[in-house]
Amino acid sequence: MLFQVVTIFPELIDAFARVGLVAKSVEAGILRFEALSPRAFTSDKHNSVDDAPFGGGSGMVMLPEPLALTMEAHDRSAAAAGLSRSLRVLLTPQGRVFTQADARRLAALPGLMLICGRYEGVDERVHALVDEQISIGDFVLNGGEVAAMALIEAVSRLLPGMLGNAQSLDEESHAAGLLEYPHYTRPRSFRGHDVPAVLLSGNHAAVARWRRKQALLRTRAQRPDLFAQLALDATDRALLAEAEDEA
Ligand code: 6GU
């Protein structure tokens, strides 16, 4: 999958692509990165990528022309690689909040263009040049770069060949709208806290029931918003009733 990033800090994306599992996947040919700066597509002597807002007010606004030229350069690069034009996603705190469902949807695409805003924002007319606007949560970052890296990591780890264990993708938090069950490894007793006995029992069915119950309880306690969206079956209701009796 090709990630085409528009950023005034391409070195951030280049560094990200050189570390850990992402770097391995680049070497394996599963991922490819292209980061271009709108500063390279300016024509004034200061290479300006932003300017003061019309109407006054604080902060600077990113100029539309350098951003448009950078996106078009990415389009030419995709075409030269025999790929269709990448879906254009603007990273902005005003976008729809990114979810695991978005990660799955975007992971099916051959390429993705991520446009990182900086400063107070981008000229409103840039919105007409992008397909979607995405935020990674209800808080404000200085720019879209860290959000783009979060999105890239969430998407790329779903690609075939990226993760060693495909089963862990189905079991992990948010895969089925549930938080994941608790995990334990050695030692059996750690500073007075013991591993739950059922996990040492060798009874695989009992372990699976316990994990499902814990996932349900944890989701209800930590994320009532997700819990409310669940379609509980008879087994789930029985597990929750069991938990009430134990309490
Ligand atoms: Cl995508 N950009 C910025 N600047 N802030 C954010 C964000 C994005 N998502 C959450 N906060």
How far apart are the first and last residues' alpha carbons, in Å?
49 Å
Which percent bin holds the helix content? 25-40%
| Spatial strand arrangement across the major sheet | 2-1-6-5-8
Query: Helix-strand pattern, N to C?
Result: EHHEEEHEHEEEHHEEHHH
Strand content: 15-25%
Helices and strands, with pairings:
Elements: E1 2-6, H1 10-16, H2 20-27, E2 32-36, E3 50-51, E4 61-62, H3 64-80, E5 87-97, H4 100-107, E6 111-116, E7 121-122, E8 132-135, H5 145-156, H6 166-171, E9 189-190, E10 193-194, H7 204-222, H8 224-227, H9 234-246
Parallel strand pairs: 1-2, 1-6, 4-7, 5-6, 5-8
Antiparallel strand pairs: 3-4, 9-10
Helix pairs in contact: 4-5, 7-9
The structure holds 6-chloroguanine.
